[in-house]
Specification:
- It is a single chain.
- With about 280 residues, the chain is of the alpha+beta class.
- It is about 45% helix and about 30% strand.
- It has 2 helices and 12 strands, in the order H-H-E-E-E-E-E-E-E-E-E-E-E-E.
- A hairpin with a 4-residue loop joins strand 4 and strand 5.
- It is rod-shaped.
- It starts with a helix and ends in an 8-residue tail after the last strand.
Length: about 280
């Protein structure tokens, strides 16, 4: 039993030794073959040139076909890079376009603001009017007022008139250093002396908390004096509150108690703060 095991081990070793001898022989064969080919290539034999040319042709053709997948992969990779670069450029252009649209809208808004301010400035040349921007519109069932961005540092005083274009819209009732508050004609507490033209009748215009007003007091029965389709309401100048002749609104013949104000109080952006010095006043 032991002898058979030893014979098996010896057989395996001999096989490995034979394999190792075969590997050595193969390596030596390749070395000699290479030397032989180098010697032949140095000789100027026609057959050698044909064989060499054929081998080169096979190698070049093989290299070309082998390089096709590699070149294709390179082209695909290049196309991907170009695609991503174009996509990045597209994203940048979209961002710039969005920014430019926002700038255009902002510039358009500023142009409109400048036009309004220019118009107000031209109308205010040579007068004591102060141009103010409406900051807050305080509106409730009982309070109709606006906050303006002008105050005592701008020489704003209580009682000054608030004018929208040429129309009276209210008066200053509170003044701080940098801002002020104006009571609108629509407020319940607003009562101003007016004159109804062409009737020539003195009256009191009162706010009702809505976008219109009422004639609250009148010395004469003006409703029976209507001879036209409408009557214009102006400030009368009585009581030294406002200068006379400032347009306020109109009264239509079919509703003789209601004053439709000329200004839309919900759309006020810029107003003029106007002062008027009566004779004998400071």
């Amino acid at each position: 039993m032991a002898s058979s095991r030893d014979d098996f081990v010896i057989a395996i070793r001999s096989a490995f030794l034979k394999k190792k001898d075969k590997q050595k022989f193969s390596l030596l064969s390749l070395i000699f073959l290479s030397i032989f080919i180098i010697i032949l290539s140095s000789l100027d034999f026609k057959i050698i040139k044909i064989v060499k040319s054929g081998i080169n042709e096979i190698i070049y053709r093989s290299s070309f076909f082998i390089s096709i997948p590699e070149n294709k992969i390179k082209d695909i990779n290049k196309q991907f890079k170009i695609h991503f670069k174009i996509y990045d450029n597209y994203q940048n252009i979209q961002s710039e376009l969005k920014f430019l649209k926002q700038e255009k809208l902002l510039n358009s808004f500023l142009k409109q603001e400048n036009k309004k301010l220019k118009k107000l400035m031209n109308e205010s040349i040579g007068s004591d009017e102060i141009i103010a921007k409406v900051l807050i519109d305080k509106e409730s069932p009982f309070l109709k007022s606006i906050i303006l961005n002008k105050g005592s540092r701008d020489k704003v005083k209580i009682g000054m008139a608030i004018v929208d274009g040429t129309y009276l819209v209210g008066k200053i009732i509170e003044v701080n250093f940098t801002n002020s508050r104006a009571l609108l004609l629509t407020d319940f507490n607003s009562k101003i002396p007016v004159i109804l033209e062409p009737l020539g009748i003195q009256a009191i215009a009162s706010g009702v908390g809505k976008d219109y007003g009422n004639i609250q007091y009148s010395r004469e029965k003006y409703k029976e004096s209507f001879k036209t389709n409408e009557v214009i309401v102006y400030t009368s100048g009585l009581g030294n509150l406002f200068k006379p002749g400032m347009p306020v609104g109109k009264i239509l013949k079919d509703n003789r108690s209601r004053i439709d104000f000329f200004s839309d109080f919900s759309q006020l952006e810029y107003v003029k703060i106007s002062s008027y010095n009566f004779k004998g006043s400071d």
